[in-house]
Fold each of these.
Amino acid sequence: MTTVVQTPETLIDGPFGARLLIQADDFSLVEHPIAPRTLAGPSHAHRHEDEYSYVLEGEVGFEVGDEVFTAGAGQLVAKPRGIWHAFWNPGDRPARILEVISPAGFERYFGELAQLIPPSRPERDLAGLAELQARYGLEMDFTSIERLSREHGLESP
């Protein structure tokens, strides 16, 4: 049975946001607003799901495997499970993407993540983050934050 979210549900608010638009049995649709010069996701890989990013507004930088490129409005980027990837807004204007996640389930990660990071908590809960990532089959390379920020002129999270 498919569940459709009638009113978008904000899961994360901030320079990198997440709004749940559709939650179905086999996929979910999440909108990600990304503020200018913001790293949306450091290098990471998903064990259980594929992601497809459709750029709605602005330009979004991507690192998928060994490829680094920028996609603009109307372009679709595939990020298959098991492949390391990162994404960011390299520009001076806001960007927005629609993220199709298949199969569904990972969209709940964003709501749980919001409870573990500022402003919900004064400091990042690193043990909680590690447990959350393990539960969702997510491997993240936090050392990529500094490199991606430096290489693409991004503000540090």
Amino acid sequence: MSTILITPLSAIEETIRLYRPSHLVTLLSPEHMIGTPEGFANERHLRLAMNDVAETRDSDVPPAVEHIESLLTFGRSWPAKAPILVHCWAGISRSTAAAYILLSDRLGPGSEMEIAQSLRYRAPHAFPNPLMIRLADTMLERNGRMIEAVRGIGRGTIVAVGERVELPLSLSEP
């Protein structure tokens, strides 16, 4: 079974070398957006330019419906034969939200709390971006379950930069 890898920007080169992911999701502010790393085709690299904010009024480029739609479409095109790497600047907020959204979409309704708990277990530092979660909850018609599940795991351990996280596609894996 393949995995969703979550890292900060500083760990993507090493993670690509060690895990050989087939797909890459970059979530960075527009002014910090990176190009496609060597070895990746552009169509296997989704670049979402957005600021890490919890409210739309707090930024010129907040997470938006279009970002979540692109993320879901890209995630659905991933065959899961090799890992997908999801990263943001610190590997704490946008990337953990994106990984949670991808796995929630893949596993379907009713899995929201179990996914959030699995994320917390594997990533004590995770603080999924609440605006991204709210948008995805609406789009996936989860009626607040994604929001409540992420709220239920709490803020997490405060760190400057997160660690690499392996989030399995099967919740039965330890």
Amino acid sequence: MTLERWRPRTLGTWSPFEEMERFLSSNWPSRIFWRRLPAEDMCWAPAMEMYEKDDHIIVRAELPGVKKEDVDVSISGDMLTLRGERKTSEEVSEGDYYRSELCYGSFSRSITLPAAVNAKKVEASYEDGILEIKVPKAEEAKPTKVQIKAK
């Protein structure tokens, strides 16, 4: 976070576009989704969410611009790993870029699953840039109801 000297503004000098540009360049999205590295090592990782539903663990990942053939899902023990690549759609050979915030290249993202799972029955679907992985819990990880006996 950078500190700026407070300058009182009048209605005539405030520009919402400059304010938005300052906000976007300092706060979003680089601090949230991407790791910033030297330009030659720039990389990205998809945003993910994970939740439990009944006897499954659902993992969803945002993969805009990635074809399903370019994504690999694997489970090893309690670790789910997504690997893939977002390829550029076209090469620009004329002119210069003024600004480019899109990230291309390979990615790898691993998350630890909260319970033991049955890796042989995992299902994955891909629609509108969202990969949804449905991971069934192993029998020993499913909750069992305990009967309470009255004396």
Amino acid sequence: MSDASTSKLLSGRCLCGNVTLGAKSVSPNVGACHCSMCVTWTGGPLLAVDCHQDVSLDGDSVAVFESSAWAERGFCSRCGTHLFYKIKQSGQYIVPVGLFKDDGDFVFDHQIFVDEKPQYYAFANATKNMTGAEVFAQFTAESGPE
């Protein structure tokens, strides 16, 4: 996975248009999360990109659900559009890639929580695959001791 991010402002909006989202630093690397929470939240894998900490949200219907001790999920309370997964400690936003216009710059290159992936679907893309334990180990190594 490359750490290169686009420096152009990308924007998106929820289905009803009440919430707009802007991100100045967006990774071109699309990842699929197969954890049980994402599958329950989305009805399938969450396909998302890392937008780091520089995300703006405008609109009066942004709702936040604290899904764990370390993360929260944002959505539009009017139409239900998923807006972000945010890691509380770092302020890092993981944003569903479908909110942004597909301009051909995105590359699907990694999958996480593959050990929790339901058996009824599979992707044909060659990707880096990580189990939940590997994800937590990487997160702990990158963030250091709490």
